[in-house]
Amino acid sequence: MTLTPPVFLAPLAGITDLPFRTLVAGFGAGLVVSEMVASQELVTARPSAKARARLELGLGCARTAVQLAGREPHWMAEAARMAEAQGARLIDINMGCPAKKVVNGYSGSALLRDLDHALRLIDAVVGAVKVPVTLKTRLGWDDDLMNAPDLAVRAEAAGAQMITIHGRTRCQFYKGRADWAAIRRVKEAVKIPVVANGDITDSRAAGRALALSGADGVMIGRGAQGRPWLLAQVGADLFSSARPQVPEGAALGDLVAGHYEAMLSFYGADLGLRTARKHLGWYCDAAGTASALRQELLTLADPAAVLRRLPCAFDERLAA
CA–CA separation, 309 vs 95, rounded Å? Predict the structure, then answer.
């Protein structure tokens, strides 16, 4: 399976839902990854988990990995089978989430402290599906346990086909700067593709991350907020893929309105209104929308009123 360009959307809780993934994939990202899905919750049909893993046929689905988290091999395997049946092209295993709720459940980056158990999960998922299985993790638990190369070697032997490394330890959370150079030790330890992640916000940062890490590709998370075309831009700058048409003015207003309506349809009017506000804020920040108009958009309680005011936020002629 070839992922071109090797510029991927990172899984972001509450952000990389189906509407946003579809939008990013439409611009030309090589891969988009779902929000982290708790494996047992998916299998037992908890609605929120099903929504996070939801796929639809078409471009977005063709380039989508579903990311699973959990601590029990049985539930991980069953969830992987479900995601594959729904159309996931890859299954990604989360072994990097630093959140206390996840770590206290012995999932996410907690698995860096028990590589034997981490391998039991990888074995279970690889044995359950035919699609490629990948892994996302961190450099290690803390500065005294930088064991990502060891995990990568064992994961490769177990059948994992790609590994993404966030250039921080778990104990760093998101503080400091991602250490892209430290990712090189993982790249040198395995033959499977290695992807660099962390603090990659534009083409210059992506190029620097690739040079320091020796990685085969990059994964972008927060940098895409308010700029769903960013991944395609990086792909064009670094990998000679097709350059996207970046929307401005009225075209940007149309894009934001389309994204907003897709979120209302996906979540329902009430939840969609609230969930979409963070995206509206990021779009306004990226476009330099006047603060008063930005605040108005984020506090309106009627979706129809939001849609009426959106053109003014991105078209200077209307704003004037």
Answer: 42
